Amino acid sequence: MNKAPEKACKRDNNKKMSLQKARNACIPKQSGTAAHVENKEENPSVKRASASPQGAPKKRSAFVDITNASNCAPNNNQKMTVKMKQKSSAVKKEAAVKKYDPAKLVVQPENVKVAEQVALEEPAETPKGEASQSQLSVERVIQVPEDFDIDTKNLSDCGMAPEYAMDIFGYLKTREEKFILENYMHKQSDLNEDMRSILVDWMVEVQENFELYHETLYLAVKLTDHYLSTSVITREVLQLIGSTSMLIACKSEERCPPCVDDLLYICDDAYKRDELIAMERNILMALNFDINIPVAYSFLRRYARCVQADMVTLTLARYVCERSLLEMEFISERASLLASGCLLIALILQGLGGWNACLEYHTGYSVSALAPLVQRLYAMLARPSSEKLKAVTNKYSHSVFFEVAKTPLVTLEKLRATLN
């Protein structure tokens, strides 16, 4: 048998293998991700391994550290590159600190791109004792006297936002101008003040049964009044408006608001789900979807800190303020003014004196400005409550609220003497 062709074939194969080895020797070896990608391109049918190749980011779940800094295992080249970048950035940062002093940067607030308009040149030296323009720009706009500063004591409590408290409540007081109400009952041909009082009394029960925040109740009453001031309704849908306002307020204030079915249940299934959802849309459209309405309860808690009022005094002021929700005559009062009047009458009933300079500074109201409102609140408390409106009185007659509803009133002469 002739074996010459077979030997020639073997020689050709050996020659090809030698040429392939020589070619591979000239090509630098690839490792890590690049080699993996090349192999994947050459062999598209090869399946991707479950484990990531060495040096590549590992797979992670959503919302985990997107940098994968703790999961990456960089090789020596990557470590060297990171060190070089860190060293370079440190050198640049040191040079920048030496050249520019951040405290001396002059910000141009009139330009939108403030960060791009920062003047890097050093300002001219100012005489001793005079603050430079840059130093004045970083200071707070509102300078609170030391005797009236009630926020620095709570710097450790970030929930109180002590750095922004003055700005927040200043903003809320400006918002009051937009939500001033007047007595709208003359526009409602099928309603009267007693019907509104019964509705608010029912809303107080809802707030207590669902254990909702007090801010939710105050906001729900505000939403109801604002809607009734713009829309003429019939008495059949009055409770629907109240329950829908509670739903909107819960969505704004509560961590876990009740569902629609719960609110339909407390209405004794008098309305359908579609009706409540349609009413929610109507209320929001009537308020132009602006439901950030300042409420008296928020101001009351802050003003009570001015005199370091105890829980009994604060709860008594809350009782007076919640009683005022039932009365139509108080819907035109600003939230900050109403909170100040309720706190003042609580201080008088507790024998803790009257208004002081710290309260006048934070509230912006003097005793003479509060006197007419306090006298009206006193007359409200002196009147016997109706048998149909017992929710607030029963609520604050409980030991949980220190039975403040049973607090005896002072004489009218003592009240006037304190106000004078």
Would you kindly provide a written description of the structure presented here, covering whatever features stand out?
Pfam families: Cyclin_C, Cyclin_N. There is one protein chain. With 420 residues, the protein is mainly alpha-helical. Among the domains are: 183-286, Cyclin A, domain 1 (Orthogonal Bundle); 296-419, Cyclin-like (Cyclin A, domain 1). The protein has 17 helices and no strands. Residues 25-74 and 95-141 have low confidence and may be disordered.
Count of individual helical segments = 17
Main beta-sheet annotation? none
Overall shape: globular
Series of secondary-structure elements, N-terminal to C-terminal: HHHHHHHHHHHHHHHHH
- Average pLDDT taken over every residue: 78
Q: Provide the gyration radius in Å.
A: 36 Å
Structural class by SSE content: mainly alpha
Domain Cyclin C-terminal: 294-410
Protein name: Cyclin B3
Family: Belongs to the cyclin family. Cyclin AB subfamily.
InterPro entries: Cyclin (IPR039361), Cyclin-like_dom (IPR013763), Cyclin-like_sf (IPR036915), Cyclin_A/B-like (IPR046965), Cyclin_C-dom (IPR004367), Cyclin_N (IPR006671)
Can you give keywords for this protein?
mainly alpha, 420 residues, Cyclin A, domain 1
Layout of strands and helices, then pairs:
Blueprint: H1 4-26, H2 32-42, H3 76-99, H4 133-138, H5 165-175, H6 193-209, H7 214-228, H8 238-253, H9 260-266, H10 273-286, H11 296-306, H12 311-324, H13 335-349, H14 357-363, H15 367-382, H16 391-395, H17 412-419
Region (Disordered): 1-60
Keywords: Cell cycle, Cell division, Cyclin
GO biological process, one term: cell division
